Amino acid sequence: MKISRITVWQKDLPLREPYRLSGGRLTFEALDSTLLRIDTDEGLAGWGEGCPWGHSYLPAHGPGLRAALAILAPALIGEDPSRIDALNRAMDLILPGHPYAKAPLDIALWDILGRKAGLPLSALFGGAEGAGVPANSSISTGSAEEMTARIADYRASGYRTHSAKVGGAAPEVEIARIEAIEAARRPDELVTYDVNRAWTPGLAVEVMNAVSAKGWFEQPCETLDQCAQVQRRTRQPLLLDECLQSLPDHLEAWKRGACEGVKVKPNRVGGLTRARQVRDFGLAVGWRMHIEDVGGTVIADTAALHLALSTPEENRMGSWLCQAHLRDDPAPGAGARLRDGRITLPEAPGLGVTPDESFLGDPVAVYA
Ligand code: MG
Description:
The protein is an alpha/beta fold and about 375 residues long. The chain folds into 2 domains: about 5-120 and about 360-365, Enolase-like, domain 1; about 125-345, Enolase-like C-terminal domain (TIM Barrel). It has helices spanning about 60-75, 85-95, 100-115, 120-125, 145-155, 170-185, 200-210, 225-230, 245-255, 265-270, 270-285, 300-310, 355-360; strands at about 5-20, 25-40, 45-50, 135, 135-140, 160-165, 190-195, 215-220, 240, 260-265, 290, 335-340, 340-345, 365. The strands form 3 sheets. The protein has a 7-stranded parallel β-sheet. A 4-stranded antiparallel β-sheet has the order 3-2-1-14, sandwiched between helices. A hairpin with a 4-residue loop joins strand 1 and strand 2. Helix 5 runs parallel beside helix 6 (about 170-185) and helix 7 runs parallel beside helix 8. The radius of gyration is 20 Å and the shape is globular. The site of magnesium ion (MG) has 6 residues, from loops.
């Protein structure tokens, strides 16, 4: 089997409401997503999606992703799509770095492999663990009242794991906001306070040592060095996210005792191949992990959720679905979906979901 064509679409994805991160330093109204299909000479095709969260969340953006595809995609034409590791090495040779641009290609290769094998991706990643994955909300930065109201809305639709975006305010405001959310938290709920690197180490130590919350805090500061310093001086477990771009970054975080868990996001680390390596390293050292993607439609959600579903329950926390924030949906009802408080996945081969091409419009590039 050989790759015969790669077709690329760009899609603006408006958010249902503006979303604020990092204390409002970063605001988003729409995402710029890139979807692609890899066709083969045997008629099998695979889908992938790459959707950075705007231009300011990570060193990644939609136009950059498509510019990189113009270099990467032609190199894959004529290659055997089942040689996924070799094709990742080839992509790293012709374009070092840019993991977010390689992610949609890697996801589509896995989709083809799953379809060829007749197995869902969760089976290829080790097998499903449990019936579905708990859902993780994403609560935009706001006042204590706004944030507790948003958590209540998610609770009503079955969510019990929440990611509350804090940071960007004076210490007394941060402390009061976290205490208000803790006071409203139900005993069966987990709230992670995600700072999205908004605090200095001193502010992180001050706030975390003042609040009653004993649960998780996430990416308090910009760098791994700063986060490691905070972890040494606080009692709450840290999750790291934005400062980990590669597997060696994760090894370094472990060596420094900088965290007790990580976010595993295929688009941040270069696709499912790399995300699975990170997930398996996390299992080896006993980390807890949120496994979800950076952004995107049900295509990106479903790819990440196959990896989450195949992760032991004691190591996985909830998974976020970007689809909950989007106005539009390329495959209504299909793929990873929240049902009765848990995210369930299709058992069809590969990703198990295909976008409606009329939703995508005309392609922006075709490589053959
Ligand atoms: Mg985060």
